[in-house]
Task: structure prediction
Amino acid sequence: MKSWPARHDATQQTLWFAWLASALILVSSEAFGHGVARGDQSYLTNIEGIHPFPFMYLGAKHMVTGYDHLLYLAGVIFFLRKLKDVVKFVSLFAIGHSITLLFGVLSGIQVNAYLVDAIIGLSVCYKALENLGTIRFLDPRIAVFGFGLVHGFGLSTKLQDLSLSQDGLVANMIYFNIGVEIGQIIALTFLLVLFSWLRSLPNFPQVASNANIVLFGAGLLLFGLQIVGFIIY
Result:
């Protein structure tokens, strides 16, 4: 039986993780989902031609402030100790995300943003349950790639609503996607440092279990917000 100090420390560490998850959700200015900031929307709808660095910056900003992406990636790398495994799974997610981001915007295929974001919320729930050993319907590699496709569609639907200029659109979307990957590297660096610290704790198994329960709750909250948004709008 664990001593009270050990249980207390695990509770404190889990509460810190819960605070981080809540902060990621609240960091967006949108009430029902992670979209494109209003100032950025105005900029994107009023420019023409190829603009490499602005689109790379906006792509990186989207990922760094993208609580939905970060929560899912946090679940993906939570138990990964080897760098090659982190690279493998993150690459699968990035490839899936890139395919649907570029394909969605360039093809003009419309998908309801709230429903896509609801699935993204469920992707966070699924990964948390997989980490808890509760479910495992798919090979983790297939699941990460598949959910990467969904996450990419989530952003493409928001970009399509902005009526982007066709002048330089292909190049700008490529630069935007490069920025997304840069932002992903920045975010992952922070997460890897955090999880490395957590794994060094003597009560890591209990903290890991509690943290993934919090992760499941965050995904469920995201799902609920998107369903409410779908019903209202």
About this structure: Residues 26-32 have pLDDT under 50 and may be disordered. The CA atoms of residues 21 and 211 lie 10 Å apart. The chain has one domain: 51-232.
